[in-house]
Every structure is written in structure tokens, then in C-alpha cells.
Amino acid sequence: MRKQYSCNHTVIVGDLNQHLVARAFEELLTVYGLTNHVTFPTHISGSSLDPVISDLPEGVVTCRPLGAVGSSDHLAVFSTIHVAGLRDVPKKRTNWLWGKTNWEGLQDALRHTPWNNILTGDVDTQVRSFTSTIHSLQRRYVPTHTFTVKPLDRPWFGYNCRVAADEKSRAWKRFRRHPTHNNKQRHKEACFNMQRVQRVAQQRWQDELKFKLSDRSVGSKSWWTALKEQQGFAPDDHIPPLNKLTPLQHRRDVAGLCVTYKILKQGAPHLAILRQPWATPHPYSTRDANKRDQQLIVPFARTATFFRSFLPRYSRLWNHVVRQTDMHQAATLHIFKCAVNAWLMPSGHN
């Protein structure tokens, strides 16, 4: 799913019957940092067969049963996600007032500019010097206005619209504090003025857009993008990224080490059957003996395919982690998983 869709968060619901694939279900939660928010039975037999899985914190997602639906033997699960929508921060925009430009001063400055001393060197250097000189003269002789652009502002909502909107807001606050007839009339006039300014801005923006699209130099992609914006369609920006796939064994090793971490460091009671005894410390002092008490006894196994291979493989891999790194001292499972994932890369411990 994460390869097919580009999303900020993931929520998986359904009748998954995870008790049939308990180990694969545990690996799924561990490897991808997911949480099952259903902690109550969802079947009339008393089993929990309808999980709600997400990568959101436990306090964000809450679930509760609603009872059976119709003749179904499953209970409906009511899930609530407490999240706030992401909003872009306001930005500052500079509006150049070309109508109030001091053209005489600008022309005089251009005539007295020592171009022979500025335009020296190769072509790239001359272009940078010329651009820098023009920009400095522009900032000197062309007045500007700086105003705040909010994320929800329309493309035609420029400086004049912002001034009218601010004036309307001030008039409304004044009328709310002092509800007199004069303040009410001022607020009414500010509303009419804002509507007038918006109509002018919209018409100007549409005229400029028509003039731009009538130019033969406009490509078909730009033309269709502008047309979709006019019709209210958002541009298609949901093309999924081509993430580099990791081998299946790599993900299994990450899951196995995370399960071992939960057994040894977090004392997960449902995984106590997999706990291995600690290795006996060396009676003498060596460089490896300092970490001997954090290593496990590796059991013997004749198979490399069934569940009996889990304890030998990941006990041995855990000992490698302890001897070569300090990842086993991580404070949280998330920190440990990220460190193990980087350590198991081809350029990591191999």
C-alpha cells in the first residue's frame, strides 16, 4: 500500500483474522511501526478478529464496539481519529508599485552608471553584475508594499484585497466593542468596499489569464493546467514515489531483532516463551567480556526454515548487535528499529 500511494499516515481496517497468521501479523506491526488500536473482542466467540491498524499514536485513535450488525457474527467497530488538518504557514509577498516609480531618477542613475567598470570578465560574470546593478536600482527607485499571503487566499487575492479585508476586520472589531450606529455604518461601508475591490481583482486576473492563454508560446500542459484550475480541479500530485525496495530477509531480520528487543528490554508477557537465557560472563577480562552479560545463549537447531530457526538465528544476530554496536541500549523500540534498519543495510555491518 505504501508503494502504491503517497500518504502521510496509514489506517488499515477489516476482517483480517490475524489469529491465523499471528507471527506475520506481529512482524507487520513491528517492521512498519504500526499499532493495533482494537483491544476488545469483535466476534461473538470472544476473539478479536477485526483490528484497526495505523501508524498514529495510541491517543489519536480510539475504538469502541457498537454491537452486531444484522445477522453478522462480527461486531461493528466505531473508530475516532483525532487529528488536525495541516495548514501552510502565511508568507510575506512584496508588491512592486510600478505606477509610483521615479522614472526620471532611474533614467538618470542608469546614464551615470559606470558600465565599463561593471561589465568586466567573462559572460557569466557580466550577467551577474548587470542583474545585481539593475536590482539595486529597482529597490532604490521603485516603491514597494509588503503584505501577508495566507494559505487559503485565492490567486487573484492581491495587495488591494488584503488591505480591504484588513479594513473590514478592523471595522467589525470596532463595531463589536462599541455597537453604535456610526460603527455599524463604517462596517457596512467596509463590506461594500471589499466586495468592489474583489470584483475588480477577479476581473483583472481573468483578463490577464485570457491574454496569457491566447499567446501561441503557451504549451498545452500549461493551458490545460490553467483550465483545470478554473474548473476547480486540483493538479494531480499523487504520483507515488519509486522507493527503493529492501530484500525480504532484511525486513525479517529487522522484525526478529525488534521482537528480541521487546522480549529482553520491554518484557513483553506474550513473548515470554521466546526468551533465551543470558550467556555466562567470562572469568577473565577481555574486550569482548565487557558486553558478555548482554549476550544470549544460542540454541542448536537442525532446520533453517521452520519456527525452530527463529531462536538460533536472532539470538546469534542479537549477539552481533551487542558486540559491534550500542543499539541494544536504545531507550525506545522506535529508536532501536531505525538503528537496526540502517545497520543491516549492505554498507552497514557486512
Automatic annotation (TrEMBL):
It comes from the Eukaryota. PANTHER family: ENDO/EXONUCLEASE/PHOSPHATASE DOMAIN-CONTAINING PROTEIN, PHD-TYPE DOMAIN-CONTAINING PROTEIN. This is Endonuclease/exonuclease/phosphatase domain-containing protein. It comes from Chionoecetes opilio.
